[in-house]
């Protein structure tokens, strides 16, 4: 099994590329027109904000649906961190083939590690080694349109939920996995997928989500309360509309709507010091039901809390999963 797999591109991939290309051509023509004073200055000033909203929404939705970094990482394997492993391939619940690495532990529990946007499963090798050192099994995998997994369109966590649920299904087929002790640790887009998947799947017994991104406009907290949010609101609205157009997926119910469904299974939310990340994580924490915990890691950049203080991160996460699995047998499963 190759660690990098070249896939065929869909018509949607090329359609999105064309839209992105036309946007840059249009911006260039507008800039040339402004330089040559084809229209009075006030016309360009009036057009500046609408041009920003439209072009920014196209740019960021394209960047989201077409993640980079595919060939940017060295061909690492868990063996580089001293972990015995096996390559695995399994199906998402919507039947995409996903590539991953399974590192067996001692039946203490199994943690699925879900990387962020633009990454690969092996990017979670540091988190994996910390958990394996404490006796946990881990499964790392490439989300769709990343690394060696199928798919050429990223859906910003909307359909990546199906990838994670497929990982749960796969683990339940293994003899050395206790289905009562499956947890998830997701970062950024992986944290979003972890929360949405846990709201749907009771077999996910505990969730750690670091810097989870928002799934919908509703996850921004409702009606804007500041002038900055009012300025950004048209961009945010159009971004989610353009995102749905480019990825072809149906938007899910947001985290604020579904996170309470995870209870009584425990949640640990981790956030760095950035205002935007802190804003969303606090909103999700307030919407969650007990048991829940929020850990703020000051000065940590987005998705880098582990590297800010590896020992504290390992202690916090391992103790969280230890407590969760000790009480897992007493949890009631929802019908």
Written description of the protein model:
- The protein is 42% helix and 13% strand.
- By secondary structure, the chain is an alpha/beta fold.
- The protein has a domain at 78-222 and 252-330: Alpha/Beta hydrolase fold, catalytic domain (Rossmann fold, 3-Layer(aba) Sandwich).
- The protein has an 8-stranded mixed beta sheet, with helices on both faces.
- Strand 5 (182-187), helix 5 and strand 6 (206-210) form a beta-alpha-beta unit.
- It is globular.
**Which ranges are low-confidence, i.e. pLDDT below 50, for 5 or more consecutive residues?**
331-335
Write the CATH homologous superfamily of the domain at 78-222 and 252-330.
Alpha/Beta hydrolase fold, catalytic domain
Helical fraction: 40-55%
Number of contiguous helices: 10
- Whole-angstrom Rg: 21 Å
What proportion of the residues form beta strands (DSSP E)?
5-15%
Number of strands: 8
What is the first-to-last residue Cα distance? Answer: 39 Å
Query: What's the level 1 CATH class of the domain at 78-222 and 252-330?
Result: Alpha Beta
Largest sheet: 8 strands, mixed
């Amino acid at each position: 099994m190759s660690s990098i797999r070249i896939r065929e591109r869909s018509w949607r991939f090329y359609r999105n590329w064309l839209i992105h290309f036309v946007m840059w051509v249009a911006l260039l023509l507008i800039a040339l027109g402004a330089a040559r004073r084809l229209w009075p200055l006030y016309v360009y000033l009036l057009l500046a904000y609408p041009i920003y909203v439209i072009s920014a929404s196209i740019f960021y939705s394209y960047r989201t649906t077409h993640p980079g970094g595919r060939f940017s990482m060295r061909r690492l394997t868990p063996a580089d961190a001293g972990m015995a492993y096996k390559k695995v391939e399994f199906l998402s619940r919507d039947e995409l083939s996903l590539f991953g690495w399974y590192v067996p532990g001692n039946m203490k529990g199994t943690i699925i590690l879900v990387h962020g946007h633009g990454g690969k499963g092996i990017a979670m090798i540091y988190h994996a080694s910390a958990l394996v050192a404490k006796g946990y099994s881990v499964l790392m995998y490439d989300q769709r349109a990343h690394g060696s997994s199928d798919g050429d369109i990223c859906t910003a966590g909307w359909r990546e939920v199906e990838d994670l649920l497929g990982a749960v299904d796969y683990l339940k087929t293994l003899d050395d996995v206790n289905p009562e002790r499956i947890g998830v640790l997701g970062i950024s887009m992986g944290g979003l997928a972890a929360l949405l998947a846990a709201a749907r799947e009771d077999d996910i017994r505990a969730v750690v989500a670091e810097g989870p991104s928002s799934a919908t406009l509703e996850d921004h907290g409702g009606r804007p309360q500041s002038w900055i949010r009012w300025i950004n609101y048209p961009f945010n609205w159009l971004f989610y509309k353009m995102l749905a157009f480019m990825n072809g997926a149906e938007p899910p119910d947001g985290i604020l709507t579904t996170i309470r469904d995870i209870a009584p299974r425990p949640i640990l939310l981790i956030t760095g010091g950035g205002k935007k990340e802190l804003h969303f994580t606090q909103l999700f924490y307030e919407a969650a039901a007990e048991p829940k915990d929020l850990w703020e890691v000051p000065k940590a950049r987005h998705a880098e809390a582990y590297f800010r203080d590896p020992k504290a991160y390992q202690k916090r996460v391992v103790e969280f999963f230890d407590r969760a699995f000790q009480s897992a047998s007493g949890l009631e499963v929802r019908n």
